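Handout, page 2. Input:
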Amino acid sequence: MASRIWAEIQADDVFGNAAKLAYYFLLALFPLLIFLTSAIGLVIGSGKGIRHALFNYLSQVMPSSAFQLIDNTMLEVSSSSGAGKLSFGLLATLWAAASGVGAMMQSLNTGYDLKESRPWWKQRLVALGLTLGLSVLIIGAVVVIFGGSKIADYLGTHFGFGDAFVITWKILQWPIAFAFMLLAFALIYFFAPDVRDQDWKWITPGSAVGVAVWLLVSFAFKGYLHFFDSYSKTYGSLGAVIVLMLWLYLTGAAVLIGGEVNSEIENAAAEKGADDAKRKGAKMPRPKKHRRAA
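Output:
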């Protein structure tokens, strides 16, 4: 199976499509961060602690030079635009952020050997819905990771829960945040490709592989740059931009590799005769034997 997946990764030009995604991700990244910080401000209030937690979360997985570029840019944008102005443009930033998801939908269709048949307005609605869903999951993961200790202490103090509850909660906050990531990838693989009549699964092989690959390459790339960062010496001030583009490229590759895993596993199940499985290029499972074929 691993050899088949690798062959499909090469045949579908996953790494070439990841380069395209990196460009769209770059265009969508700052509108997404503006949307997230504005949404936090509207829902939670000033939310400065949670906003800082969001950027602390980014700093854990991103190369330091790329994070500094994002942090400085967001600080400049926030300084030049008031909170009311950002809130007023919330829908505009959401629309711009959805462009990255729209590009991801097209790339996943390639992995599933599908031709897009949804009208443009439906594609845009799906992209907007996915962007909103992913934003909620990102905020949820940040709150759980960086606010989990305070939540546990509050519940323990006000409801009389013992120290065992507080310790258990603080341990479980990391698996819960990881579950948020798995759910985010599952949402992408369920809604993004133009596949119909599929059953929802909370965890798929592709989502597990996609999250694992993304975390692995992010931390490996971050570690490499910590010891062997030559981009700044070679490219000067452009080094941070190049590092950011490389990280976005690796992120896109991880998402597409997870999609290839799901697609190839389902294709293999269809070849073995599973009624609810779809062959590559098919939008729906083949009709069951006791049904008439449409």
